[in-house]
Design goal:
With about 400 residues, the chain is of the alpha+beta class. The chain is about 45% helix and about 15% strand. A 5-stranded antiparallel β-sheet has the order 1-2-3-4-5. A hairpin with a 7-residue loop joins strand 9 and strand 10. The longest helix has 29 residues. The protein is globular and about 80 Å long. The termini are far apart. It comes from Kribbella alba.
Length: about 400
């Protein structure tokens, strides 16, 4: 027989909700235990934005986890409905602010499919090149920030050095550091600046040459391995149940990548040539997720080099198609999905023949990736929660939209 009673800790004190004490009437060796409800966030440095986790704790062990989202909700999907198809692009590149160019691809791809537009081949290869550069930028952020959350400050300086190398060529091309606004329905904003391709090739070579610095600094570190190996295992069954995708799913042995499985842009040809490899691991723990992310940077640099070689051998040509001043999409519907850096990113577009969509639903990767936390965190300790949370590689804007 046990009892449960409220212990007088106010909900406003140090982020604690009322807690409950359980006790028994057995032997003298039995000690009363307390379940504490602890709020992690919504202003916590380990949450990649304004996310709140409501944890029920038994000592330091997590009994239950409830992610509470919505602090960054801006109603992007409703804003899409009152913007024309050119204006939507500037909103769509902001939900995952680390993957802006890749976010744009889903919108323009859906509109182009509905309109039956054929994008110039030069624009197809340029889009593929820029998408992979954007993927490298995304992954480098997490490769630097994840060790930081576990107490290692040095790797973030190396990661940001590489990010700045790539950012320089992306900024030269588009004028933007994060929100590029370089995609257009029917192609790209404009052609490349003179001499940009050799400079992009040099940036890729520099990052590839220095990437082992991060690898040697982190993967062999005994403290990092102790905090990540065997921690936060995620099974393929849970991945299928929650729709988890991207590097997190592939770290658990789920061999799925839309670039290969349902190719778009120039990925079909790159896969046939053997340049596109799908990186997988089987362990499904925090270490495997970090390892997949690091290996994917190498694959993306291979893809960047292949795209640059192809573009250098390609004759000059258009990078977009002429469109009417008022762009209207024919009545109908389509679903266009892409392999974003964090996982599957999909847009469900419904048109009634107007210059604005009747409905544009966004399926973001981070929402599904974070939804599995209530299954992962119970029976782990709070210190491991930080390691698990950081290894889920999410952006809160991508969750809340």
């Amino acid at each position: 027989m046990s009892t449960e009673r409220v212990v007088g800790i106010g909900a406003g004190a140090a982020g604690l909700d009322p807690v409950y004490e359980r006790g028994g009437t057995g032997t003298a060796s039995e000690l009363p235990t307390t379940d504490m409800v602890l709020n992690i966030g919504p202003q916590h440095p380990a949450t990649h934005g304004v996310l709140r986790l409501r944890l029920t704790l038994d000592g330091e062990r997590i009994v239950h986890c409830e992610p509470i989202i919505g602090y960054m909700h801006r109603g992007a999907e409703k804003l899409f409905e009152v913007r024309d198809y050119r204006q939507i692009i500037v909103l769509a590149n902001r939900h995952d602010w680390l993957s802006a160019f890749c976010n744009e691809l889903g919108v323009v791809g859906a509109v182009e499919r509905m309109m039956g537009l054929e994008v110039p081949v030069r624009a197809v290869w340029l889009r593929t090149l820029l998408a992979e550069l954007n993927r490298v930028l995304n992954h480098l952020m997490f490769l630097g920030s994840y060790p930081l959350e576990l107490g290692a400050i040095t790797p973030v300086f190396y990661a940001f050095r590489e990010r700045e190398t790539i950012q320089a060529v992306m900024e030269e091309l588009s004028g933007g550091r994060m929100h590029y606004m370089f995609n257009r329905v029917g192609g790209l904003k404009e052609d490349l600046p003179y001499g940009w391709l050799p400079r992009a090739a040099a940036a890729s070579a520099a990052v590839r040459r220095r990437l082992p610095d991060i690898e040697n600094l982190v993967l062999g570190n005994e403290i990092f391995r102790a905090r990540t190996v065997g921690v936060g295992r995620l099974s393929p069954e849970l991945i299928a149940s929650y729709g988890v995708s991207g590097p997190i799913a592939r770290a658990s042995g789920v061999d799925a990548d839309l670039r290969r499985d349902e190719p778009y842009l120039a990925y079909d040809e790159l896969a046939r040539d053997g340049v596109l490899r799908v990186v997988t691991r089987t362990e499904g723990d925090c270490f495997a997720r970090f390892s997949v992310l690091l290996e994917q940077v190498k694959v993306s640099l291979d893809l960047v080099d292949a795209c640059i070689d192809r573009l250098l051998s390609m004759p000059a040509g258009p990078v977009n198609v002429r469109l009417p001043k008022i762009l209207k999409v024919p009545e109908g519907q389509t679903y266009y999905w892409t392999e974003n850096p964090l996982g599957i990113n999909g847009y469900y577009l419904v048109s009634r023949g107007d210059k604005t969509p009747w409905r544009l639903k966004l399926r973001s990767a981070s929402f599904n990736n974070i939804s599995v936390l209530p299954e992962m965190l119970p029976d782990t300790i709070v210190a491991d929660m930080i390691a698990i949370l950081g290894s889920m590689f999410f952006v809160v804007g991508d969750i809340d939209k």
